[in-house]
Amino acid sequence: MFVHAFKKGVLPGPFSESLIRSHPATFADIRRRVVAHIAAESEVSEKRGNVAPAKPRAQTRVQPQRVMETAAGKRDQRTRHPYDPKKNKGKVPGRPRETNRPPRYEFVMGLADLIAILNIAARLKVPEKTTKKVLGPKPDTWCEFHKSFGHSINSCLGLGHQLAKLVKCGFLKDYLLEKQAGQSTGSQPANEGQQHEVPIHGEIHTIAGGFSGGGCTASQRKKYMRSVMSVEVFEDHSPDMDITLTKGDLRDVVPHDNDPIVISLVTARRTVHRVLVNHGSSADVMFWPTFQKLQLSPDQLRPYRGCLYGFAGDQVEVRGYIELRTTITDGLTSRTEKMRYLVVNAPSAYNILLGRPTLKRTAAVPSTRHMKVKLLSMEGLIITI
Fold first, then answer.
1. Integer Cα distance of 175 and 191 in angstroms
2. Helix or strand holding residue 49 (H, E)
3. Dihedral Cα 343, 346, 348, 350, nearest 10 deg
4. Which helix (H) or strand (E) holds 309?
5. From its phi and psi, is residue 314 left (phi > 0), alpha (psi between -120 and 50) or beta?
6. CA pair distance 198, 182, nearest whole angstrom
7. What is the 3-state secondary structure (H, E, C) of 144-165?
8. Which tops the pLDDT comparison, 85 or 361?
9. Winning range, highest mean pLDDT, from 20-29, 71-80, 219-228
10. Higher model confidence: residue 269 or residue 51?
11. What burial class does residue 90 get, using C-beta atoms within 10 Å of its C-beta: 0-12 exposed, 13-18 middle, 19+ buried?
């Protein structure tokens, strides 16, 4: 009964025909024949792949020529049409036919990675899914934009026209690959002034954005620039004490290979470990999983209108910012400051990034060699972490 049900469920083909010709008695017999059939198909496919395709034979047969028919006669028999100006209207002689192809631009990343960026994907009009249709002459080539076969994403006309519009309006200017400087011009000799240049495929940035530079609005940045350019008397009310790092601070340091400075702090009544001290970040960043583990409400987030860019220059999704009282302590003395954290939805091995705003506010001095951070408490004592 089970053998009969198995035979009914097999799709039509060579294996189904073999079951019809020779009825199996048990499932063990069916398994043995399945293994033999798979091995035979593998050998046949491998043999077909090794055989080179046959070349078409050249046509050696001379076409018979009709009696009283020569090449000159053929030229005379051609119909000659008079010139019609209406047919050639709008055509410029000597110029190739204009096509509907968009201009080609070179970006710092592939098109598949470019359209995966959230702010760019939101501005693209995604076509309807046509997985059953082949959109182009190449049935084995996949287009990530149309989600179908037929052409590659680099030759996709629909995506090219949309990207061309975004480039013209200046939205993709940060993603364009800039031309290399120092290229030889047409007036210079071909062998004079030329140098070997490596093509640039992208740029690596630091974390840029946040509240540094005055703020996230244009008026705040202009106000900050005016204050920078003006000359004012600055009074430092911080405690008068020098922060130094000596050889004594190296006693408890294990030899390391340029490890990052990772500390702990207290915020929202919880101790947060794996806090990275990052000189290259222009903002204090808290990641979304850490925000959830602190059991903070999303209603406490304030809207942030600016942009935050990561190390690769891509824009990071910012859910908002929150102000929290944060305590940095070494067990003996401590310092508490009100810090503004940008809450971002991005994967990270750390819980919080302490950037330049916190280092400046607390007058902290980090040292990678000593694997320590020193800062002053409000009482004028040195905190060593």
1. 32
2. helix 27-50
3. 10
4. strand 308-309
5. beta
6. 12
7. CCCCEEECCHHHCHHHHHHHHH
8. 361
9. 20-29
10. 269
11. exposed
- Reply yes or no on whether the pLDDT at 218 is more than 70: no
Residue count of the chain: 385
Identity (one letter) of the amino acid at 229? M
- How many Å apart are CA 373 and CA 364, to the nearest integer? 7
Let me know how many helices (H) and strands (E) the chain has, helices first.
10, 14
**d(C-alpha 363, C-alpha 380), whole Å:** 12
Q: What is the pairing mode between strands 262-267 and 270-277?
A: antiparallel
Do 249 and 322 form a contact (C-beta atoms < 8 A)? no
Specify whether the CB–CB gap between 206 and 282 falls below 8 A: yes
Helix (H, G, I), strand (E, B) or coil at 8: helix
Q: Domains along the chain?
A: 2-36 (no CATH), 111-168 (no CATH), 247-384 (2.40.70.10)
* Residues 92-122: b if buried by 16+ CB within 10 A, e if exposed: eeeeeeeeeebeeeebbbebeebbeeeebee
- Start-to-end Cα distance in the chain: 76
* 3: its two tokens: 């053998």
What's the rounded Cα separation, in Å, for the pair 355 and 333? 22
Q: Which SS3 state, helix, strand or coil, does residue 7 take?
A: helix
Question: Hey, how many other C-beta atoms are within 10 angstroms of the C-beta on 55?
Answer: 6
Q: Can you give the pLDDT at residue 202?
A: 47
67 φ/ψ angles, rounded to the nearest 5 degrees: -70, 140
Q: What is the pLDDT of residues 10-48, one digit of tens each?
A: 777 777 788 777 777 787 888 888 888 888 888 888 877
User: How would DSSP label each residue in 317-365?
Assistant: PEEEEEEEEEEEE-SS-EEEEEEEEEEE----SSSEEE-HHHHHHTT-E
Quote the pTM value. 0.42
What's the one-letter identity of residue 381? L
